[in-house]
């Protein structure tokens, strides 16, 4: 391997999405080409980036948006990965069978083939985020995808709030954590609450970086959906995509308002060096964590 093989140039795409899937696909391709032209060897796109965030309401017709994996979108983005000689992480509404659908991230290798996939494990059901109506929880576990640029711990959006998911990816050998995301403000929230939410979202993910000594890449969509909708009926996706290092240090941060491409170069040797002086994995008390397998205690035992 070349001497700089453990130095990985990466890019995160923050994107506005329109109701036109073909226009979104072409816009994504333009941004991916720009990322590759500027040196990225790994590119991450936002969650469900082929169209508007459809789970904001329950609509049986929205299942028509789903597609198989492999399918037309993996073929399109696979050709792009091969042309640009990059590893590409895309996010799709996967139709596994009629009546069985997943929120799936697909990793495309530099030759255009599918290196692996991750099916979102934690499925939200909140006002404006009715994902349980559409998505079956993933059944592939927390397994990194082996690629030519490293072992990718791919998770999706709501997964990013759960330290267990990040830790299990780390224990399985992930070398970085990637979060394609679709998250935004309720326009009815006041600015102070919106600021707290954005800060909490970035902080918890930086915590996963620190606790596992892994870089984190997060790609969010941006802008009001649907465009022009009254605030009470819309989601203002807050952008704020970022790349941080294995001590949670900021490497690149996007604004909250614009689509853009973020770049950083990761030194993948830092994880091993940090774990030698901050041995969190060594000092875990797995003999005392049995209560984690319960939702909660049902008695008053201290």
In a few lines, what is going on in this structure?
This protein is of the alpha+beta class and 302 residues long. It is 23% helix and 28% strand.
Polypeptide structure, described:
By secondary structure, the chain is of the alpha+beta class. It has helices at 21-37, 72-84, 163-171, 191-212, 270-277; strands at residues 7-14, 42-44, 87-97, 100-108, 114-119, 125-126, 129-130, 145-147, 150-154, 176-181, 184-185, 216-220, 222-225, 235-238, 242-244, 250-253, 260-267. The strands form 4 sheets. The protein has a 6-stranded mixed sheet. A 6-stranded mixed sheet has the order 8-9-10-12-15-16, with helices on one face. Helix 1 (21-37) packs parallel to helix 2 and helix 3 packs parallel to helix 4 (191-212).
Structure keywords:
single chain; 302 residues; alpha+beta; Nitrilase/N-carbamoyl-D-aminoacid amidohydrolase; six-stranded mixed sheet; 17 strands; globular
Uncertain regions spanning at least 5 consecutive residues: none
Assign the structural class, choosing from mainly alpha, mainly beta, alpha/beta, alpha+beta, or little secondary structure: alpha+beta
Q: Sketch the topology as an H/E string, one letter per element.
A: EHEHEEEEEEEHEEHEEEEEEH
- Write down how many β-strands occur, each being a DSSP E stretch of 2 or more residues: 17
The residue-averaged pLDDT reads 94
Calculate Rg over CA atoms.
Answer: 19 Å
In spatial order, strands of the major sheet run 5-4-3-2-1-17
What is the CATH topology?
Nitrilase/N-carbamoyl-D-aminoacid amidohydrolase
Strand content: 25-35%
Using the alpha-carbon principal axes, give the shape: globular
Largest sheet: 6 strands, mixed
Q: Count the helices. How many? A: 5
CATH-derived architecture: 4-Layer Sandwich
């Amino acid at each position: 391997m070349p001497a700089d093989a453990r130095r990985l140039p990466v890019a995160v795409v923050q994107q506005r999405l329109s109701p036109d899937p073909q226009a979104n696909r072409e816009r994504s391709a333009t941004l991916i080409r720009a990322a590759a032209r500027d040196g990225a060897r790994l590119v991450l796109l936002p969650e469900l980036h082929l169209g508007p965030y459809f789970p904001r309401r329950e609509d049986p017709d929205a299942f028509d948006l789903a597609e198989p994996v492999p399918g037309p979108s993996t073929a399109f983005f696979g050709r792009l990965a091969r042309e640009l000689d990059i590893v590409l992480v895309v996010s799709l509404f996967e139709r596994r069978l009629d009546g069985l659908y997943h929120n799936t991230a697909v990793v495309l290798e530099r030759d255009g083939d599918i290196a692996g996939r991750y099916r979102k494990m934690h499925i939200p059901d909140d006002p404006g985020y009715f994902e349980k109506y559409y998505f079956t929880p993933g059944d592939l576990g927390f397994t990194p995808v082996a690629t030519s640029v490293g072992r990718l711990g791919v998770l999706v959006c709501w997964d990013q709030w759960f330290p267990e998911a990040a830790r299990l990816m780390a224990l399985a050998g992930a070398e970085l954590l990637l979060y394609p995301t679709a998250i935004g403000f309720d326009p009815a929230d006041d600015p102070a609450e919106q600021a707290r939410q954005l800060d909490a979202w970035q902080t918890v993910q930086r915590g996963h970086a620190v606790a596992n000594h892994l870089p984190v890449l997060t790609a969010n969509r941006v802008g009001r959906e649907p465009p022009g909708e009254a605030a009470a009926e819309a989601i203002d996706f807050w952008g704020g995509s970022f790349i941080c290092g294995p001590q949670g240090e900021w490497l690149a941060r996007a604004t909250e308002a614009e689509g853009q491409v973020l770049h950083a170069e990761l030194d993948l040797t830092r994880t091993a060096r940090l774990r030698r002086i901050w041995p969190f994995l060594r000092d875990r008390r797995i003999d005392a964590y049995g209560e984690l397998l319960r939702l909660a205690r049902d008695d008053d035992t201290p």
